[in-house]
Task: structure prediction
Amino acid sequence: MESGSKSAAADINTQVSLSLKRRIRRLTELVADGLTDRTDTVRSSVLATLCGLNTFLYGPPGTAKSKICRRLNEIFAGNGRYFEHLMHRFCTPEELFGPISISKLKQDEYERKTAGYLADADFAFLDEIWKSSPAVLNTLLTLINERTYHNGNKTVSAPLRNMVVASNEIPLSEDDLAALYDRFIVRLVIEPVHGIDNFRKLLLSAPEVDRDEHLHRDRLKDLAVTDEEYGNWKKLIDDIRLSDELLGAMASLREALSAKYAEESAGKNVKQGYDGFSENEKAGTSVSYISDRRWVQSARYLKAAAFFNEENEAAIKYLILLEDILWHAPSEKAGLRTLILGELRRALDERIRNTDEGKILENSRILDEILTSCSNEQLFTDHNIAIRMLNEGDEPKVTFSMLKDYGFTYVKSNDFWNLESWFRKTDIKSLYPEEVISGCRNQVKDGKTAILLPETGDVIRIILYRDLNGYFSKGDAEGTEVFTFSVPGHRGSDGQSLEEERYTAPSVLMPKLVQLWLKNRLEDRFEMYARISEIQSHFGGLEKKIKTTIRINFEGIFSEECGRAERHAADVAAVKSVVPLKPEERGEYMPGRFMMTAGTDVYILTMENGDRVIYQTVHGNFPPAKGEMLTYERRYNGRGYVWVEKESYRRWFNSEVNRLGMASARHLNCTFNEDNELFAGGLHCVLNDGETPVPGRNAMRLQTINYEKALLELSPEDRLDITSARIPFDEFSQKDEFTVLDHEGRPCGKASSREAPTGRSVKIRFDNGGEVNSFISSDILRFLNETISSFKTVRRIIEENARFIKDTRARLDGIRDSVNNDIFLSDEQKKRLTDIIEEVYAPVNAEIARAGHYEKEASELVDKYSIRKHAAK
Result:
């Protein structure tokens, strides 16, 4: 069946060559010639006639409906048999189908003489169709639908090609005429001529048109359609395919119309009627029921439009022709057109998403993101890297350098205000000077404790005891802590053992670091060294014996290292009392700008262990309540170390970093305190790689701001570190050893890298001396991979878009030409379609216009990140 259809199509194409479209266009022009303001009506009527669909012309009398129908008949060779009749309320079947044959009646046969009447016509025009009675009109059903007529007891085939009816009324939807009305597929509104110019033209041309009508018929003869052509065309029209876009749009439109009809009809007693052209419009719903027959016939109408435009399939543009089919009353046309245009817009949007046009938009979005991202140097700064390109061959060689050398700074900064880390690495015995250990009076020798007859100033061993509260418990005075101890080997003056005697002492006698140490110990007892500060003896007690009380302190017991570590101590305790900081106390606790933040209140907290802590809060907020647990740290205020609540200090640290603009700083001038610690802008600093600050070398390189620790991490300005080298990314990721470059692109050393659990470690040996061991985290490597991949993607996408743009331009030009050169679309329909096309394609056209911009921006980006490559000397 398919191959036969293609063969027939080839025959017809051979017969008319490429002239079919021009021939139909010329036919349409001749039918409309001289008929003022009737071009659109003629165009649709010619299409309906050529594909064999019946047409309803809705309009008042005197609008050239009859003349149009006569000319439609003349497009066929020989003009065919034409039947025209003015219907009226008293119309009889004889007027339409012919009189009863008297001769047949005498033979007892009921038969009409149909020659010259409707059943014998090739083309029929019935004016004022709805004036006639339903009984007469319903006799037309089989003739219109099956092209047959029941003449007496015989069923004869009718040669009828088309029937056109006209009226200025609309039949009631619930009337018996609904079935007949449904068979008129194409429905055209004919109004009186519009505008002054058309009216003048009508008056001037009317006499000439009527006088030259016979000449018009002669001109049509040369283009007239033969019966053979008409028959072949009908078959070829059936073989035209509806595009997937059009099918989808028709299905979606049907759903929309059905839903709207059901919604508006629900709960309504809808009455529909028409008395005249301008006043009797349908009341109730704004859409009507569309039968399956009309949908099927409408598909044929769209296929015919494609066929006569010499197109292989009915494209989405033809959906707009349904506005001449899917209405019941003219008042529905505006809403129907809105729905149709909405489906056209949706279908074109869908096309763009799924074709090269969509790829252009997606590629442009990706290009925008990549170029914006890669142009944002702050993004690189946030990841602590800078990239530069060396132009070597077709593909630029990408190198990266670290902006700041995190190195192993975290190893040292981790010890600050982190006693757990310090305790893990430090044995408390190492904090005792050798002279303390050797001078101990009750030392253990050969497994035995030496007998101790204590004297003031002696260094002794003591044993501390832990209960359920730990090594420290509340003292007799509020807000004090004490610890309990005994003295091994202790003997009284009478030689009696006093080892079991328990003594108490305030915890404040101990260095803070030792107190914190003991808070983290779980043993029942712990030995340490102390110094006897006082010995008291008295007689009493139930035993009436001499009692000895030993008082101790820890002067000279611990080395200076204990004091240095204590500078970075932290503790947790409950609040005992809160008082606002007095103005006269500011110099003691907050000299200079230390902890000075606008809009805040400062309090001094006394903790239950006796520590006094600076607490800062936003003005108006309440200070912490009694008993609330807080974490606090030792911080240097410019004169000495004070306790500061942890979050208060971090708020001040952040505000100072912002005030001084340190986040964007690369170099800092530093100062030293009396403990040889490094500060910048009053903020605590630490050198990376465990280096010790050297007074006089105050210029430092800022590597990172450690907000968690409230520390500035630095490195000496004159020391080579990982920021001094540019690392080729591909070689860094793939090779064991590779050459690194300086910031001018010259080789400056060798490096090797290897996998690490959370990134890659790198070791650089500089040619002029110096070695750096550092680490590149997996987050930075991931960012580098994405960024470098993005650079390569830009070039690929630009080349890909060039192909897509070329194809899209050709395709869009084809769409525009297809619409503008279509022979059945009205000027208004062409404009509406063109507007939708331009609207939907506007983003695509905008990106096409920006194609050169992307190429320019990509080129500028490469130039921006390029470095001059110097030959190795």
